[in-house]
Amino acid sequence: MKMIKSFLTSCCCCCLVIQILLAAQSAAAAESKSFTSTTTTTTNIDHDDDTIPTFHTQDEQQKASDYANYFSSYADLYHQKIMLKDQHRMNAYYNAIMKNQHVFRDKVVMDVGSGSGILAVWAAKAGAKRVYAVEYTDMAKHARNVVKANGVDHIVTVIQGAVEDVKIPIEDWEAFNLQTEEDATDEECRDESMSCKHQQSQVVDIIISEWMGYFLLRESMLDSVIRARDMFLKPKSGILLPSHATMLIAPIMNEDQHHMVIEEYLEGMNDWNDYLVNAKKQYGVDMSILTEEYDKEQRDYYLKSSHYVQLDDDTILAPPIVVKTLDLAVCTLEDAKGVDEAEFSFDIESSGSGADDEEEINGFAGWFTVDFQSRTDEVGKQFGAKMTNPVHFSSSPEIGDTHWGHQVFYFTPAIPIQSNDKVTLDGTMEMIRSKQSARLYNVKFQYTIEAAADGSNNLMDMVESVYKIP
Protein backbone atom coordinates (compact mmCIF):
# COMPACT_ATOMS: atom_id res chain seq x y z
CA MET A 1 0.00 0.00 0.00
CA LYS A 2 2.93 2.32 0.61
CA MET A 3 3.69 2.25 -3.11
CA ILE A 4 0.14 3.10 -4.22
CA LYS A 5 -0.24 5.87 -1.61
CA SER A 6 3.05 7.37 -2.71
CA PHE A 7 1.89 7.43 -6.29
CA LEU A 8 -1.51 8.92 -5.55
CA THR A 9 -0.17 11.71 -3.37
CA SER A 10 2.20 12.73 -6.13
CA CYS A 11 -0.53 12.76 -8.77
CA CYS A 12 -2.37 15.97 -9.45
CA CYS A 13 -5.47 14.06 -10.52
CA CYS A 14 -5.54 11.44 -7.78
CA CYS A 15 -9.31 10.98 -7.73
CA LEU A 16 -9.45 10.46 -11.45
CA VAL A 17 -6.52 8.05 -11.35
CA ILE A 18 -8.30 6.02 -8.65
CA GLN A 19 -11.34 5.84 -10.91
CA ILE A 20 -9.16 4.72 -13.80
CA LEU A 21 -7.50 2.05 -11.65
CA LEU A 22 -10.79 0.66 -10.35
CA ALA A 23 -12.31 0.64 -13.83
CA ALA A 24 -9.22 -1.00 -15.30
CA GLN A 25 -9.17 -3.67 -12.60
CA SER A 26 -12.83 -4.45 -13.22
CA ALA A 27 -12.24 -4.61 -16.96
CA ALA A 28 -9.15 -6.78 -16.47
CA ALA A 29 -11.16 -9.29 -14.48
CA ALA A 30 -13.76 -9.55 -17.22
CA GLU A 31 -11.16 -9.68 -19.98
CA SER A 32 -9.17 -12.30 -18.12
CA LYS A 33 -12.19 -14.61 -18.10
CA SER A 34 -12.54 -14.10 -21.83
CA PHE A 35 -8.82 -14.69 -22.35
CA THR A 36 -8.89 -17.89 -20.32
CA SER A 37 -11.91 -19.09 -22.24
CA THR A 38 -10.19 -18.27 -25.51
CA THR A 39 -7.08 -20.11 -24.42
CA THR A 40 -9.06 -23.21 -23.58
CA THR A 41 -10.85 -23.07 -26.91
CA THR A 42 -7.59 -22.63 -28.80
CA THR A 43 -6.07 -25.76 -27.31
CA ASN A 44 -9.11 -27.88 -28.15
CA ILE A 45 -9.97 -26.89 -31.74
CA ASP A 46 -8.32 -27.67 -35.01
CA HIS A 47 -5.65 -25.12 -35.98
CA ASP A 48 -7.50 -24.08 -39.12
CA ASP A 49 -10.06 -22.27 -36.94
CA ASP A 50 -7.57 -19.69 -35.71
CA THR A 51 -4.92 -19.68 -38.38
CA ILE A 52 -5.28 -17.31 -41.31
CA PRO A 53 -8.46 -18.43 -43.12
CA THR A 54 -8.17 -16.43 -46.30
CA PHE A 55 -6.45 -18.77 -48.72
CA HIS A 56 -7.32 -22.29 -47.68
CA THR A 57 -11.06 -21.69 -47.77
CA GLN A 58 -13.35 -20.70 -50.62
CA ASP A 59 -15.10 -17.99 -48.60
CA GLU A 60 -14.94 -14.90 -50.80
CA GLN A 61 -16.29 -12.71 -48.02
CA GLN A 62 -13.39 -13.71 -45.79
CA LYS A 63 -10.95 -12.97 -48.60
CA ALA A 64 -12.46 -9.53 -49.18
CA SER A 65 -12.41 -8.73 -45.47
CA ASP A 66 -8.81 -9.86 -45.07
CA TYR A 67 -7.76 -7.78 -48.06
CA ALA A 68 -9.49 -4.67 -46.74
CA ASN A 69 -8.12 -5.05 -43.21
CA TYR A 70 -4.62 -6.26 -43.98
CA PHE A 71 -3.38 -6.42 -47.55
CA SER A 72 -4.75 -3.18 -48.96
CA SER A 73 -2.19 -0.85 -47.36
CA TYR A 74 0.67 -2.91 -48.78
CA ALA A 75 -0.52 -2.02 -52.27
CA ASP A 76 0.50 1.62 -51.66
CA LEU A 77 3.98 2.86 -52.51
CA TYR A 78 3.78 5.18 -49.52
CA HIS A 79 3.54 2.19 -47.20
CA GLN A 80 6.35 0.42 -49.05
CA LYS A 81 8.52 3.52 -48.73
CA ILE A 82 8.27 3.41 -44.93
CA MET A 83 9.77 -0.08 -44.97
CA LEU A 84 12.32 0.69 -47.68
CA LYS A 85 13.63 3.68 -45.72
CA ASP A 86 14.24 1.55 -42.62
CA GLN A 87 18.03 1.29 -42.83
CA HIS A 88 18.34 -1.35 -40.11
CA ARG A 89 15.86 -3.57 -41.95
CA MET A 90 17.39 -2.98 -45.36
CA ASN A 91 20.98 -3.51 -44.23
CA ALA A 92 20.11 -6.81 -42.54
CA TYR A 93 18.53 -8.30 -45.66
CA TYR A 94 21.13 -6.85 -48.02
CA ASN A 95 24.02 -8.23 -45.98
CA ALA A 96 22.34 -11.60 -45.50
CA ILE A 97 22.03 -11.96 -49.29
CA MET A 98 25.03 -10.17 -50.74
CA LYS A 99 27.55 -11.38 -48.16
CA ASN A 100 26.43 -14.97 -48.72
CA GLN A 101 26.36 -15.08 -52.49
CA HIS A 102 27.80 -18.60 -52.46
CA VAL A 103 24.49 -19.73 -50.90
CA PHE A 104 22.42 -18.11 -53.68
CA ARG A 105 24.56 -19.02 -56.67
CA ASP A 106 22.62 -21.19 -59.17
CA LYS A 107 19.80 -21.70 -56.65
CA VAL A 108 16.02 -21.39 -56.86
CA VAL A 109 14.65 -18.68 -54.55
CA MET A 110 11.13 -17.75 -53.48
CA ASP A 111 10.41 -14.30 -52.01
CA VAL A 112 7.16 -14.56 -50.02
CA GLY A 113 5.33 -11.22 -49.81
CA SER A 114 7.72 -9.58 -52.25
CA GLY A 115 6.25 -6.07 -52.09
CA SER A 116 8.41 -3.79 -54.24
CA GLY A 117 10.54 -6.75 -55.32
CA ILE A 118 13.82 -5.48 -53.89
CA LEU A 119 14.72 -8.73 -52.11
CA ALA A 120 14.07 -10.67 -55.31
CA VAL A 121 16.37 -8.30 -57.22
CA TRP A 122 19.13 -8.79 -54.67
CA ALA A 123 18.71 -12.57 -54.85
CA ALA A 124 19.11 -12.44 -58.63
CA LYS A 125 22.17 -10.20 -58.37
CA ALA A 126 23.63 -12.66 -55.84
CA GLY A 127 23.56 -15.37 -58.49
CA ALA A 128 20.22 -17.17 -58.17
CA LYS A 129 19.20 -18.96 -61.38
CA ARG A 130 15.46 -18.50 -60.78
CA VAL A 131 13.54 -16.27 -58.36
CA TYR A 132 9.79 -16.42 -57.74
CA ALA A 133 8.60 -13.11 -56.27
CA VAL A 134 5.14 -13.79 -54.84
CA GLU A 135 3.00 -10.74 -54.06
CA TYR A 136 -0.73 -10.76 -53.39
CA THR A 137 -1.52 -7.08 -53.95
CA ASP A 138 -1.29 -4.84 -57.01
CA MET A 139 2.18 -3.90 -55.77
CA ALA A 140 3.12 -6.83 -58.02
CA LYS A 141 2.91 -4.58 -61.09
CA HIS A 142 5.42 -2.18 -59.51
CA ALA A 143 7.65 -5.12 -58.60
CA ARG A 144 7.66 -6.21 -62.26
CA ASN A 145 8.77 -2.73 -63.28
CA VAL A 146 11.54 -2.72 -60.65
CA VAL A 147 12.73 -6.15 -61.75
CA LYS A 148 12.83 -5.10 -65.40
CA ALA A 149 14.48 -1.76 -64.67
CA ASN A 150 17.27 -3.58 -62.85
CA GLY A 151 17.89 -6.02 -65.68
CA VAL A 152 16.96 -9.24 -63.88
CA ASP A 153 13.58 -9.99 -65.47
CA HIS A 154 15.10 -13.05 -67.16
CA ILE A 155 15.71 -14.48 -63.67
CA VAL A 156 12.89 -13.05 -61.56
CA THR A 157 9.27 -13.81 -62.32
CA VAL A 158 6.67 -11.89 -60.30
CA ILE A 159 3.62 -13.96 -59.45
CA GLN A 160 0.58 -12.04 -58.24
CA GLY A 161 -1.45 -14.13 -55.85
CA ALA A 162 -1.40 -15.85 -52.49
CA VAL A 163 1.57 -18.11 -51.93
CA GLU A 164 -0.88 -20.80 -50.84
CA ASP A 165 -2.29 -20.81 -54.40
CA VAL A 166 0.98 -20.58 -56.32
CA LYS A 167 1.96 -23.26 -58.83
CA ILE A 168 5.49 -23.65 -60.15
CA PRO A 169 5.26 -22.85 -63.90
CA ILE A 170 5.46 -26.06 -65.94
CA GLU A 171 7.83 -24.52 -68.46
CA ASP A 172 10.36 -23.74 -65.71
CA TRP A 173 11.09 -27.40 -65.04
CA GLU A 174 13.08 -27.76 -68.24
CA ALA A 175 14.11 -24.14 -68.73
CA PHE A 176 15.75 -23.89 -65.29
CA ASN A 177 16.43 -27.56 -64.65
CA LEU A 178 14.27 -27.67 -61.55
CA GLN A 179 14.76 -30.69 -59.34
CA THR A 180 13.41 -32.03 -56.08
CA GLU A 181 15.53 -33.79 -53.49
CA GLU A 182 13.52 -36.96 -53.84
CA ASP A 183 12.62 -37.27 -57.51
CA ALA A 184 9.20 -38.91 -57.84
CA THR A 185 8.92 -41.66 -60.46
CA ASP A 186 6.64 -41.32 -63.47
CA GLU A 187 4.52 -44.17 -62.14
CA GLU A 188 3.88 -42.34 -58.88
CA CYS A 189 2.74 -39.22 -60.69
CA ARG A 190 0.39 -40.69 -63.26
CA ASP A 191 -2.61 -40.35 -60.99
CA GLU A 192 -1.75 -36.68 -60.34
CA SER A 193 -2.38 -37.28 -56.65
CA MET A 194 -2.12 -34.36 -54.26
CA SER A 195 0.83 -35.99 -52.47
CA CYS A 196 2.71 -36.28 -55.75
CA LYS A 197 1.95 -32.68 -56.72
CA HIS A 198 3.08 -31.54 -53.26
CA GLN A 199 6.33 -33.46 -53.59
CA GLN A 200 6.95 -32.19 -57.10
CA SER A 201 6.65 -28.58 -55.95
CA GLN A 202 9.53 -28.80 -53.47
CA VAL A 203 12.12 -27.34 -55.82
CA VAL A 204 13.01 -24.14 -53.91
CA ASP A 205 16.43 -23.89 -52.28
CA ILE A 206 15.87 -20.62 -50.38
CA ILE A 207 12.76 -18.88 -49.08
CA ILE A 208 13.33 -15.27 -48.17
CA SER A 209 10.61 -13.14 -46.65
CA GLU A 210 10.15 -10.03 -44.59
CA TRP A 211 7.17 -11.38 -42.65
CA MET A 212 7.68 -9.87 -39.21
CA GLY A 213 4.97 -7.65 -37.70
CA TYR A 214 4.76 -5.61 -34.53
CA PHE A 215 6.12 -7.68 -31.63
CA LEU A 216 7.05 -10.22 -34.30
CA LEU A 217 3.74 -12.06 -34.72
CA ARG A 218 1.14 -9.35 -35.38
CA GLU A 219 -0.34 -9.71 -38.89
CA SER A 220 0.24 -13.50 -38.74
CA MET A 221 2.14 -13.56 -42.02
CA LEU A 222 4.27 -16.31 -40.54
CA ASP A 223 1.43 -18.72 -41.40
CA SER A 224 1.99 -18.09 -45.10
CA VAL A 225 5.75 -18.54 -44.78
CA ILE A 226 5.27 -21.88 -43.02
CA ARG A 227 2.86 -23.05 -45.70
CA ALA A 228 5.26 -21.92 -48.43
CA ARG A 229 8.06 -23.85 -46.70
CA ASP A 230 5.99 -27.02 -46.54
CA MET A 231 4.84 -26.70 -50.16
CA PHE A 232 7.96 -25.51 -51.96
CA LEU A 233 11.17 -25.74 -49.92
CA LYS A 234 13.52 -28.69 -50.26
CA PRO A 235 13.04 -30.29 -46.84
CA LYS A 236 16.61 -31.46 -46.26
CA SER A 237 18.78 -28.77 -47.80
CA GLY A 238 16.47 -25.77 -48.15
CA ILE A 239 16.95 -22.71 -45.94
CA LEU A 240 14.73 -19.85 -44.83
CA LEU A 241 15.93 -16.29 -44.35
CA PRO A 242 15.51 -15.15 -41.70
CA SER A 243 16.14 -18.54 -40.17
CA HIS A 244 15.38 -17.90 -36.49
CA ALA A 245 13.32 -15.40 -34.49
CA THR A 246 13.10 -14.37 -30.85
CA MET A 247 10.56 -12.35 -28.84
CA LEU A 248 11.64 -10.37 -25.78
CA ILE A 249 10.08 -8.22 -23.05
CA ALA A 250 11.46 -5.83 -20.43
CA PRO A 251 10.10 -3.29 -17.94
CA ILE A 252 10.43 0.34 -18.94
CA MET A 253 10.38 3.86 -17.59
CA ASN A 254 8.57 6.06 -20.11
CA GLU A 255 6.81 8.64 -17.94
CA ASP A 256 6.07 11.39 -20.45
CA GLN A 257 4.43 9.12 -23.00
CA HIS A 258 2.54 7.19 -20.30
CA HIS A 259 1.17 10.37 -18.74
CA MET A 260 0.15 11.63 -22.18
CA VAL A 261 -1.85 8.44 -22.79
CA ILE A 262 -3.68 8.86 -19.46
CA GLU A 263 -4.31 12.55 -20.15
CA GLU A 264 -5.79 11.73 -23.55
CA TYR A 265 -8.12 9.23 -21.91
CA LEU A 266 -9.20 11.81 -19.33
CA GLU A 267 -9.64 14.50 -21.96
CA GLY A 268 -11.81 12.15 -23.98
CA MET A 269 -14.06 11.50 -21.00
CA ASN A 270 -14.24 15.20 -20.12
CA ASP A 271 -15.22 15.95 -23.70
CA TRP A 272 -17.95 13.30 -23.49
CA ASN A 273 -19.29 14.77 -20.25
CA ASP A 274 -19.37 18.24 -21.82
CA TYR A 275 -21.32 16.77 -24.71
CA LEU A 276 -23.88 15.24 -22.33
CA VAL A 277 -24.52 18.59 -20.71
CA ASN A 278 -24.89 20.35 -24.06
CA ALA A 279 -27.13 17.63 -25.54
CA LYS A 280 -29.46 17.86 -22.56
CA LYS A 281 -29.44 21.65 -22.51
CA GLN A 282 -29.75 22.36 -26.24
CA TYR A 283 -31.74 19.38 -27.51
CA GLY A 284 -33.50 18.02 -24.45
CA VAL A 285 -32.06 14.52 -24.90
CA ASP A 286 -30.38 12.56 -22.12
CA MET A 287 -27.52 10.54 -23.64
CA SER A 288 -25.91 9.53 -20.35
CA ILE A 289 -27.16 5.96 -20.77
CA LEU A 290 -24.24 5.54 -23.23
CA THR A 291 -21.55 6.73 -20.81
CA GLU A 292 -20.56 3.29 -19.58
CA GLU A 293 -20.07 1.95 -23.11
CA TYR A 294 -18.22 5.08 -24.21
CA ASP A 295 -15.92 4.80 -21.21
CA LYS A 296 -15.26 1.15 -22.06
CA GLU A 297 -14.30 2.10 -25.62
CA GLN A 298 -11.94 4.76 -24.33
CA ARG A 299 -10.36 2.44 -21.75
CA ASP A 300 -9.96 -0.32 -24.32
CA TYR A 301 -8.18 2.06 -26.67
CA TYR A 302 -5.99 4.01 -24.25
CA LEU A 303 -5.50 1.77 -21.21
CA LYS A 304 -6.04 -1.79 -22.40
CA SER A 305 -4.28 -1.71 -25.75
CA SER A 306 -0.57 -1.78 -26.48
CA HIS A 307 0.94 1.40 -27.88
CA TYR A 308 3.42 1.86 -30.72
CA VAL A 309 6.39 3.74 -29.25
CA GLN A 310 9.95 4.36 -30.39
CA LEU A 311 11.82 3.82 -27.14
CA ASP A 312 15.31 4.99 -26.27
CA ASP A 313 17.83 2.60 -24.78
CA ASP A 314 17.79 4.38 -21.41
CA THR A 315 14.10 3.56 -20.90
CA ILE A 316 14.86 -0.14 -20.29
CA LEU A 317 14.98 -0.85 -16.55
CA ALA A 318 16.21 -4.46 -16.51
CA PRO A 319 17.79 -6.94 -18.93
CA PRO A 320 15.17 -8.28 -21.35
CA ILE A 321 13.81 -11.81 -21.05
CA VAL A 322 13.13 -14.12 -23.99
CA VAL A 323 9.48 -15.25 -24.10
CA LYS A 324 9.55 -17.20 -27.38
CA THR A 325 12.00 -18.53 -29.94
CA LEU A 326 11.23 -19.85 -33.41
CA ASP A 327 13.32 -22.02 -35.70
CA LEU A 328 11.78 -21.31 -39.09
CA ALA A 329 12.98 -24.61 -40.53
CA VAL A 330 10.84 -26.67 -38.17
CA CYS A 331 8.27 -24.43 -36.46
CA THR A 332 4.59 -25.22 -37.02
CA LEU A 333 1.36 -23.32 -37.58
CA GLU A 334 0.60 -24.06 -33.93
CA ASP A 335 3.84 -22.32 -32.92
CA ALA A 336 2.79 -19.25 -34.89
CA LYS A 337 -0.41 -18.80 -32.91
CA GLY A 338 1.22 -16.96 -30.04
CA VAL A 339 3.21 -17.36 -26.84
CA ASP A 340 2.50 -20.07 -24.32
CA GLU A 341 2.72 -19.04 -20.68
CA ALA A 342 6.26 -17.64 -20.39
CA GLU A 343 7.77 -16.88 -16.98
CA PHE A 344 9.68 -13.72 -16.14
CA SER A 345 11.37 -12.14 -13.14
CA PHE A 346 12.68 -8.58 -13.20
CA ASP A 347 14.67 -6.87 -10.44
CA ILE A 348 14.48 -3.10 -10.82
CA GLU A 349 16.49 -0.67 -8.70
CA SER A 350 15.96 3.05 -8.50
CA SER A 351 18.59 5.19 -10.17
CA GLY A 352 17.74 8.19 -7.98
CA SER A 353 20.25 9.46 -5.47
CA GLY A 354 18.21 11.80 -3.31
CA ALA A 355 15.90 10.75 -0.50
CA ASP A 356 12.92 12.36 -2.22
CA ASP A 357 13.67 11.03 -5.70
CA GLU A 358 10.86 8.97 -7.11
CA GLU A 359 10.67 7.20 -10.43
CA GLU A 360 8.06 5.10 -12.15
CA ILE A 361 7.89 1.69 -13.75
CA ASN A 362 5.48 2.49 -16.53
CA GLY A 363 4.94 -0.88 -18.15
CA PHE A 364 6.42 -3.65 -20.23
CA ALA A 365 7.83 -3.28 -23.73
CA GLY A 366 8.07 -6.01 -26.36
CA TRP A 367 10.28 -6.36 -29.43
CA PHE A 368 12.01 -9.06 -31.47
CA THR A 369 15.23 -10.19 -33.10
CA VAL A 370 15.82 -12.35 -36.17
CA ASP A 371 18.89 -14.20 -37.41
CA PHE A 372 20.02 -15.11 -40.90
CA GLN A 373 22.16 -18.16 -40.32
CA SER A 374 22.63 -21.82 -41.18
CA ARG A 375 20.05 -24.37 -40.17
CA THR A 376 20.35 -25.71 -36.63
CA ASP A 377 17.93 -28.65 -36.81
CA GLU A 378 19.55 -32.09 -37.09
CA VAL A 379 18.62 -32.65 -40.75
CA GLY A 380 19.47 -29.11 -41.78
CA LYS A 381 22.85 -29.17 -40.06
CA GLN A 382 23.78 -32.13 -42.23
CA PHE A 383 22.36 -31.08 -45.60
CA GLY A 384 21.60 -27.34 -45.45
CA ALA A 385 23.68 -24.61 -47.07
CA LYS A 386 26.19 -22.88 -44.79
CA MET A 387 25.70 -19.18 -44.13
CA THR A 388 29.35 -18.34 -43.56
CA ASN A 389 28.48 -14.69 -42.92
CA PRO A 390 25.47 -14.82 -40.58
CA VAL A 391 23.54 -11.63 -39.89
CA HIS A 392 21.72 -10.63 -36.71
CA PHE A 393 18.92 -8.06 -36.67
CA SER A 394 17.35 -6.59 -33.56
CA SER A 395 14.46 -4.15 -33.21
CA SER A 396 15.45 -3.42 -29.60
CA PRO A 397 15.65 0.16 -28.32
CA GLU A 398 19.44 0.01 -28.19
CA ILE A 399 19.85 -0.05 -31.99
CA GLY A 400 17.70 3.00 -32.70
CA ASP A 401 14.40 3.45 -34.51
CA THR A 402 12.95 0.90 -36.89
CA HIS A 403 9.59 0.97 -38.63
CA TRP A 404 8.44 -1.79 -36.24
CA GLY A 405 8.93 0.44 -33.18
CA HIS A 406 8.15 -1.21 -29.84
CA GLN A 407 4.90 -2.45 -28.39
CA VAL A 408 4.38 -0.93 -24.95
CA PHE A 409 1.91 -2.30 -22.41
CA TYR A 410 1.35 0.49 -19.90
CA PHE A 411 0.50 -0.22 -16.26
CA THR A 412 -2.58 1.41 -14.73
CA PRO A 413 -1.34 3.03 -12.60
CA ALA A 414 2.43 3.15 -12.91
CA ILE A 415 4.48 1.50 -10.17
CA PRO A 416 6.47 4.09 -8.18
CA ILE A 417 9.95 3.28 -6.99
CA GLN A 418 11.63 5.39 -4.34
CA SER A 419 15.32 6.21 -4.17
CA ASN A 420 17.41 3.22 -3.03
CA ASP A 421 14.40 0.91 -3.32
CA LYS A 422 14.20 -2.28 -5.33
CA VAL A 423 11.07 -3.65 -6.99
CA THR A 424 10.75 -7.24 -8.20
CA LEU A 425 8.16 -8.22 -10.79
CA ASP A 426 7.56 -11.99 -10.92
CA GLY A 427 5.01 -13.47 -13.27
CA THR A 428 4.01 -14.80 -16.65
CA MET A 429 3.15 -13.50 -20.10
CA GLU A 430 0.80 -15.19 -22.55
CA MET A 431 -0.20 -14.19 -26.08
CA ILE A 432 -3.02 -15.59 -28.21
CA ARG A 433 -4.85 -14.63 -31.37
CA SER A 434 -7.89 -12.42 -31.15
CA LYS A 435 -11.31 -13.96 -31.72
CA GLN A 436 -12.17 -11.00 -33.95
CA SER A 437 -9.18 -11.37 -36.28
CA ALA A 438 -6.57 -14.09 -36.59
CA ARG A 439 -4.08 -11.39 -37.63
CA LEU A 440 -4.34 -9.62 -34.25
CA TYR A 441 -3.33 -10.75 -30.77
CA ASN A 442 -4.21 -10.35 -27.12
CA VAL A 443 -1.54 -10.38 -24.42
CA LYS A 444 -2.02 -11.26 -20.76
CA PHE A 445 0.40 -10.41 -17.96
CA GLN A 446 0.07 -11.90 -14.48
CA TYR A 447 2.62 -10.82 -11.90
CA THR A 448 3.30 -9.94 -8.29
CA ILE A 449 5.05 -6.78 -7.15
CA GLU A 450 7.54 -7.03 -4.30
CA ALA A 451 9.02 -3.78 -3.04
CA ALA A 452 12.13 -3.81 -0.86
CA ALA A 453 12.80 -0.63 1.11
CA ASP A 454 14.58 0.13 4.39
CA GLY A 455 15.38 -3.52 4.91
CA SER A 456 11.75 -4.67 4.68
CA ASN A 457 9.80 -6.35 1.89
CA ASN A 458 6.24 -5.54 0.87
CA LEU A 459 4.51 -8.10 -1.37
CA MET A 460 1.42 -6.82 -3.16
CA ASP A 461 -1.45 -8.86 -4.59
CA MET A 462 -1.31 -10.51 -7.98
CA VAL A 463 -1.85 -8.10 -10.88
CA GLU A 464 -3.56 -9.40 -14.00
CA SER A 465 -3.93 -7.31 -17.16
CA VAL A 466 -5.07 -8.17 -20.66
CA TYR A 467 -4.09 -5.97 -23.62
CA LYS A 468 -5.05 -5.92 -27.26
CA ILE A 469 -2.36 -5.42 -29.90
CA PRO A 470 -4.35 -3.29 -32.37
Automatic annotation (TrEMBL):
GO terms for cellular component: nucleus
Domain of life, source organism: Eukaryota
Region (Disordered): 39-58
CDD domains found in the cross-reference section: AdoMet_MTases (cd02440)
Keywords: Methyltransferase, S-adenosyl-L-methionine, Signal, Transferase
Gene Ontology BP annotations: methylation
One example GO MF annotation: histone methyltransferase activity
The Protein arginine N-methyltransferase domain, residue ranges: 260-450
Signal peptide: 1-29
PANTHER family, A to Z: PROTEIN ARGININE N-METHYLTRANSFERASE (PTHR11006), PROTEIN ARGININE N-METHYLTRANSFERASE PRMT10 (PTHR11006:SF68)
Protein name: Protein arginine N-methyltransferase domain-containing protein
Organism: Skeletonema marinoi
